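Aim 2 progress. For Pyrroloquinoline-quinone synthase, the working sequence is reproduced below.
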Amino acid sequence: MTATREEFEARLRQIGADRYHDKHPFHARLHGGQCSPDEVRAWVVNRWYYQSRIPMKDAAFMSRVTDPALRRAWRSRIEDHDGREGNEGGIRRWLRLAEAVGLDPDYVASGEGVMPATRFAVDAYVRFVRDETLLEAIAASLTELFAPKIHAQRIEGLLQHYDFADDSSLSYFRNRLGEAPKDVAFGLQYVLDHADTAEKQDAAAAALTFKTDVLWSQLDALWSAYVEPARIPPGAWRPGQGLLISAEAS
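Predicted structure tokens for this construct:
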């Protein structure tokens, strides 16, 4: 039976309440100031891979869209990350965070130290958006419904507990507080409008669940590799690699 619009939105929001990665213990550790400098660096190195693939995911999505109005509405997402005149973009802001924690931005941007599990999870998301229906691709983006809360918690926690945290290093998260609500308002409206059968509602809910799994699995991999007991996989970033000279000296 097809749910009402209100019932279906509540179902989507419940997925976030149950499964969003703000509940992962790594985030409690990070926001609570319990991460070591190297654990923070490992998070920055691996999360960069996700950030760098967001505009690629959106470009893959747009390549399949025949409706110019939908393309116009979606393309700002690419500019938000890649940048445009007057906006350096989220990827550059993330590399500024990398520099603030003592990493060489060029090393981070090379992707050399990204864990295999991170690559598999993020690349699976890009393929999902490229290959599944437009409805499912947009539904997967609705983790943005839950992002502003985690960004606000992150800003507060990092400022309180870490010396590297300031307005410059945390500019990625501050900007997303303004960008994400715009994106999610459009995405949610689209999903609620187009998921007009029980089958489509199930597919959209499954897509959002898949995306929460993508985010959760990245933190599981970080915990396994860098927290306790640390089991860093071959090829992944190791403490001491890719540091700025000033960080090496300290």
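The mean pLDDT is 94. This observation will guide construct design in the next reporting period.
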